[in-house]
């Protein structure tokens, strides 16, 4: 309550709390009075109470997510598909081009990825593009090529699905469905990927809070699909020397709050090839459960986002460095 | 080019530009050399050039959007539907509850809206909710009630569509399709609302730049639907005393760059009922073409977002104030 | 307390609270227990309690500022010096060049300012500059010219002081001491300007929260100087189409929390001359108590920040527009 | 130039460039014309040109800092004082309490720091505090205790100086002068610490860009003092689960742009003790040249910022982990 709020206002708040089927509990302090509202969370209760006369502020006490929470499941979740294991001490590496561009390109890269010791192959077939005039991806043809690359290498295919109506098609080819940052709060899509039963890589929206991120995961978990990987790929801030700001404290913070594994994307997170390897090493040192990295045989000829892609040689170098750091922090890579 | 970049690197850049079917043009400065690349925009060209050795940075010169640009159409667009006119000197006011909750609620509010002199009725039937445990809206029943409220008052119905597969249904009832901030970059949805032929109210994503916002509009315009209203509803910043930060400079900035009308949402933009009227007045003074405002007969009992809703009395007061400010700046309200 | 925290941990928290000379009060809820700590604010108490085992979080209830608060003084403060009145329904306009550049320049502008009906003259003599290679201002010579311009016009002189050791000198010439955004948390400077006894214009730091801003004012008020004007000049966000993001909700928010007047700087807040007048009108409509605006007879030849300065003609136009908006919202200008 | 700008406007821009003693160079493109301005940087030139009619935008090409740049000095700088070496492959660790609180406290901590293998002792004697009602530090008495702790352990003393008028006093006791984030753009202070001749630890302001950070360093370097360490301590963003957002990409980015060493502060950068060790490891893996960490024998009784301080045991654990990561990435710790 506001300092000096009258008894009548206090009574009104108490009555309101009880109408919401909550219990009220009053504590009288030196300068102001606090009323506790006890019981199950009521939708809209915070807002309803906040507008009452005499109320200074309403402070919620419990986390809004349930199934993602370590309060519900304490042991870390490990998502495993083909040779890719992410979580619970296993560091899974996913690499590949921004977009599938041709059969030669994706097969060449898949072998680079495999030979360097990674277990997941990324590659966009359906591309969400900021401009309607940009390359939109090879679509189903791209999915076929990814499946062919899997057959040739055994790598698990990770690819984005950007619309509910594509889920069935993409799920027929992919091993992991990726939900992009732009779609983190596209709830019909979250439900549809959940219902596919496939593991999901959920990217954080560039202005999403941790609670919003975990609630988006909750939309997937609620369908009964528990194979969700959270992916930190950078947030929008005032910084302009990197494409996004990559906040690695996300990794240990999420490890405290959720049992779901946390993957880091240093390619989108920095937007500059020269910063990818240092940030990949840093992510591993912070305890990340996985990395997703863009590589391209000729970054300067890539049809999308080439400026942040590593060359095969740079990727092999990054893998060697990350392997040392993983050993230093006790992760199995 | 970087200071001191050798001729060989320069030649490589020039060759690369020409492979992209662009013309190159070299300018030698005191400390560094600049190479201009001339011609139509090439997708990925900036990124491709940026990765070449010896290149310091690549600076694009032209706006990436076309059909939304004042370079293409100089006269401001006025979107008109029933009695609602937004743009080109006409200030359209849209008001209503966050969610349609019952027949009584929406009819009561519709009359408040009509009597206060507004011409659009907002109200959510399909609600995108951060938490899967929150109220998701009345869905088709809500649309029917909105249509009934239109019949009773003549107000134009503005309501959100959150998935491509709902567009047909929502379009059967609504006068304006709203695309929410979470879906600003949901490209399949943008195309679908564009193809519906109905006017679209496109909300800015909370971390979208002006270029991204205008490119999202471009996705709609490209379908041949030119009735797009842009809506500033606040951005994510470090500020925590308001729900979002409402940057009104968006209004005059967009008026310079695009012919599309600009609507302001002071309810979501502040998240606090007590700040709505001052920001509504400020938006009008900045030259906004429309306002979209949340009202509720009993904000403290609203099923969603009640804390930012105005009471009918506060809304009438706001309308009276905005009418004076509109007159002061020469807008017809 | 965390859900499931044992009684022993609860007892430890209670003991800790009592060691801090606070009273404790326990509320047992459905899923967790809350302990209220009652009494005067203890420095470090929040942090100390937060680190105890079993504690989920610590939520402070009272505003940390006192003398700036409307809880202490309800009537709005009006700062008056010469013909300039800012606050309590009086809208004061301060205008002038970014930097004093010459006798002719400042006298010419002072007459423009006066003739347009403004009452304050701004102009930098000591300039804090991001780069050590930029123009640093005319220093004492600039102050003399400002005083001469005051003599010629009767305008109140508002100028920045950027170091404690300059306060005495600047105070000998100025009517209002400005503390720049970079120095908002330069506490020795805040105390020194407070002790000068002159009115102070305190600019918000580009990443300061409202609490930090009001606490900075509190550093000045604590010296016994109550003539403090708060100035919103824009915050750092991801937006790149304006120099800063100008959040006008600051104005009504501060009017609820503090009795101090709120001035808006649309020149720094946007960084673009073409956006200054619309944002000045918007600030007035939001209820601002003052405006501080950059003008220059030849903006394209200004030695600093010319790109955001209005020409005399544009300033007169802005004044005419603001006068109409002020009348519409009941402010005396 | 804007698309369609007339020849007369182009001529005016050229004339203007030449009045600034720059050379102009015109490139005619498909849709618009670009004019290059060649020569030494002119203060205000960008802004002056931007306001000319017909000009679309002005793009600066060169870095605004000089002496901090790798363009001027390619070899990394190593700052060494007593046993503390920071830079050029040497990883220096600085640890200690937020504030010096008593003789016992600082001596006890100094031995913890020394025994764990660190070489620098941090501790605030003059404390800049957001609220005027908070503990302001022990001042000169605190400096004496720091000097005593140095005598007992050989650790280099790192302490903040918050006002120009204190530089002489603090420099009489300290080995490294720290400039806090709030004072990053306090130019008189930067000059004064530069002139002291002592090594300086310059903290990044929470909303400073890389260019602003390096230009602040330039203010110090210009005095002839080249022993400047840059310290990343987190930026202000919308994230609220950490006190600040700690962007580690700063480390490799600065290593590309400057020869100055880069120190990371995971304590302020996260504000939570449980996140400090993971982010310390990540900083080392990213290539940081130093760490500055808060520790306290009894964090829950600290007079300031105890919630982010490590216990001695947690600090020893962090040191052991960082040592492994440093070895993995080839840094000498």
Describe this structure in words.
The structure is a homotetramer of 333-residue chains. Chain A is of the alpha/beta class. Chain A has eleven helices and twelve strands. The first copy, chain A, has helices spanning 7-19, 45-50, 103-115, 140-153, 167-171, 187-196, 210-221, 250-257, 266-270, 273-285, 312-329, and strands at residues 23-28, 33-38, 79-81, 84-86, 92-96, 120-122, 156-160, 176-179, 200-203, 228-232, 262-264, 290-294. In chain A, the strands form three sheets. The first copy, chain A, has an eight-stranded parallel β-barrel, surrounded by six helices. In chain A, strands 1-2 form a two-stranded antiparallel ribbon. The longest helix of chain A has 18 residues, at 312-329. Chains in contact: A-B, A-C, A-D, B-C, B-D, C-D. The interface between A and B is large, with 55 and 55 residues.
């Amino acid at each position: 309550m506001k300092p000096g709020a009258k008894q009548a206002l206090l009574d009104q708040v108490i009555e309101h709390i009880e109408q919401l089927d909550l219990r009220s509990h009053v504590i009288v302090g030196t300068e102001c009075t606090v009323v506790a509202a006890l019981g199950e969370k009521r939708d809209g209760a915070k807002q309803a109470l906040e507008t009452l006369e005499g109320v200074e502020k309403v402070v919620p006490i419990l986390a809004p997510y349930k199934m993602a929470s370590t309060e519900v499941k304490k042991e870390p979740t490990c998502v495993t598909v083909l040779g890719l294991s992410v979580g619970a001490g296993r560091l899974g590496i996913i690499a590949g081009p921004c977009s599938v561009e041709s059969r030669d390109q994706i097969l060449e890269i898949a072998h680079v990825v495999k030979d360097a010791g990674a277990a997941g192959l990324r590659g966009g077939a359906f591309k969400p593009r900021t401009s309607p005039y940009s390359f939109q991806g090879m679509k189903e043809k791209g999915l076929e090529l990814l499946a062919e690359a899997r057959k040739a290498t055994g790598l698990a295919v990770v690819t984005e699905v950007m619309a509910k109506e594509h889920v069935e098609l993409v799920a027929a080819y992919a091993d992991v469905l990726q939900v992009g940052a732009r779609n983190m709060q596209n709830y019909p899509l979250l439900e549809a990927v959940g219902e596919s039963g496939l593991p999901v890589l959920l990217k954080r929206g560039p202005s999403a809070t941790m609670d919003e991120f975990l609630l988006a995961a909750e939309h997937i978990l609620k369908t009964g699909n528990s194979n969700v990987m959270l992916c930190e790929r950078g947030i929008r801030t005032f910084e302009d020397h990197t494409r996004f700001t990559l906040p690695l404290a996300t990794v240990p913070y999420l490890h405290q709050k959720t049992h779901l594994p946390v993957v880091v994307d240093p390619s989108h997170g920095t937007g500059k090839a020269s910063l990818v390897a240092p940030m990949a090493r840093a992510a591993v040192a912070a305890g990340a459960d996985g990395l997703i990295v863009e590589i391209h045989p000729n970054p300067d000829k890539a049809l999308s986002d080439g400026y942040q892609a590593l060359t095969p040689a740079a990727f092999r170098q990054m893998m060697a460095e990350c392997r040392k750091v993983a050993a230093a922090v006790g992760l199995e890579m």
